[in-house]
Prior knowledge:
Heterodimer of HisH and HisF. The chain has 213 residues and is of the alpha/beta class. It contains six helices and 13 strands.
Amino acid sequence: MSDKKKVVVFxxxxxxxxxxxxxxxxxxxxxxxxxxxxRAMNADGLLVPGVGAFSACMQGLREARGDxxxxxxxxxxRPVMGICVGMQILFERGIEHGVETEGLDxxxxxxxxxxxPVVPHMGWNTVQAPQDSELFAGLDADTRYYFVHSYAVxxxxxxxxxxxxRAPKVTWSTHGEPFVAAVENxxxxxxxxxxxxxxxxxxxxxxxxxxxx
Length: 213
């Protein structure tokens, strides 16, 4: 019997599922691309990719029952990781071209246009991770990751008043203005950048995630 962690890349029509599959397999996961509800629910980890428009991703995710899968997994403390728009849809809402779309509302906050001289933000950039980050463990502060996006979450914080609940670990980057580059919040982790396109650094980051499953 394999001791590899079973990871499902959720296939809802939006996302680089093949590159995510290759990157996860490269770091030792047993990977499957599927939208099957039971398989997605029973995997050790669920990865939700995403490319394109916030509204289109949300529509595709709901049609594939992905909103149920994410919600049910998190209610049971089962790990979920979102990438790029797969991170953005975890927030309360997205605003694109003046149109507001409801997200999964796992976190409060709004995804809006990047205010920068050049958009989209495309290419390699550094991040500022918390010292106690598990996601970025073993990675230097000057490490660069690959971004492709025109929208992001800005000025975001999640106030925690219950001493028994840990506040999320938020990682930031800057392109024109500061924006959320990653979040670690219990069983729910996410990155705005693409680990599967970030070379050795992305491989280390995925290894860190798999190590928590």
